[in-house]
Amino acid sequence: MADLTITAASVLADSAAQVSVGTAGVALVAGNTCYLSTDGTWYLGLSSGNTTQAGAGGVGIALDNAAVGQPIALFRGGKINLGATLTIGQTYVVSAHGGMIAPISDLASTNWVSILGVAMDAANMQTPSYGPFVPGVQRA
Fold first, then answer.
1. Residues 6+ apart with CB under 8 A from 41
2. Greatest CA separation for the chain
3. With a threshold of 0.90, does the pTM exceed it?
4. Domain 8-127's class?
């Protein structure tokens, strides 16, 4: 499989989803995975980087577009329509390609595992209400 092809205009969090607002550290597009940097801003998530880039300090999915220094709404838990075609039951993770979302089977043994959620149907992914499972282990 490959990274999801996301239509940014179709990314939409459920009304009961956990959403927070932060500041973009780089240009972000709706559907990008993001991690909270030590400088307090949000950057493109990356499972092939270090644990911070994979989301150990916080991970979310951008709900809108933002330039550097602008506010960004971030999906942090619950149900989200990713604007992509999902495989029901598939577990999705922060990709090894900056800001992308991939099926867990795409990770290499050196990638950090940050589980974003599981596809509940062909459009929606469910994440625990307390947020994604963040890195602690590399893929075996």
1. 22, 23, 24, 25
2. 38
3. yes
4. mainly beta
